[in-house]
């Protein structure tokens, strides 16, 4: 029997493209479903151009692939359930449902995986905000549809309540206590349905709620780093994880608090392409195929810088001046403001000296 598989990827952005590149290295064929026929994945795979909720297109993809996976969590889980054959989506649709809704996600993390999350409560209308203790700070987040800080309101005083009440009356929300973290970190973990493998802890710096820089290893104590990795493994095991998952967390002086999970390779794991002996995309493909997973080694401390639409020229200049830095461009045709166009990875023991593109100029 041939070990070459046809892998169907839902979503043809940069994550789908980098998954496809890993799959192709391993000898597999990739077909992508994406609304845009010229999406980044079109450089490396066949594309079925159709909306994500087009059940006929999902069925067409399922019919011609051995295994299906996705590059983002807002996939139509019901549509997928209607078309997948037994075992065809190793990640399952349950994980999608958990990560599509912050209420399910918090419930899963705190009650099933039993990891620490910020104290929270479900908010169904502004009435649920009437008795909050304003001596503390909070973040109100819509249960569904939020990303990169959209659909969120920080509450630090009574003045913030007007906007928070409006948000609470517009959609189901989760109210979280504000965490006074030292660092934002994340851990990539991959599973093959039986075993898991875990990557080093990543330190993440955001600008305008968009990831700007990742430093690996994160500058936290070994004790906290071990704890962060153990939490990621615990979550993965609770899920019988297949493929790659990113666990985003806050590191405080003496604790790790889980913020959210993303059931796919993540922007903060891109450094692994050059800096680890297997990338988060390699282990994603191995994992969804149920193949044995390698232990992960970091070759050297690394830094990843995101290249947004307004940073393309600066990034191109940077790699001309620093030819040992690796420039990845995703092949997007239009460089819009704040659109993720590529990233740069370099090895460095002095991450503070690696300056983010556009820092102080145009984030
Ligand atoms: P999220 O959409 O949950 O990833 O939140 C976006 C960003 O808001 C995070 O990267 C944090 O910088 C910040 N944030 C979210 N939740 C909290 C919290 N409970 N306490 C402090 N900061 C938060």
From TrEMBL:
Catalysed reactions, as listed in the record: 5-amino-1-(5-phospho-beta-D-ribosyl)imidazole + hydrogencarbonate + ATP = 5-carboxyamino-1-(5-phospho-D-ribosyl)imidazole + ADP + phosphate + 2 H(+)
Known cofactor(s): Mn(2+); Mg(2+)
GO MF, any single term: 5-(carboxyamino)imidazole ribonucleotide synthase activity
ATP-grasp domain mapped to chain residues: 107-289
Pfam families: ATP-grasp, PurK_C, RS_preATP-grasp-like
Similarity comment: Belongs to the PurK/PurT family.
Subunit structure: Homodimer.
Protein name in UniProt: N5-carboxyaminoimidazole ribonucleotide synthase
Name of encoding gene: purK
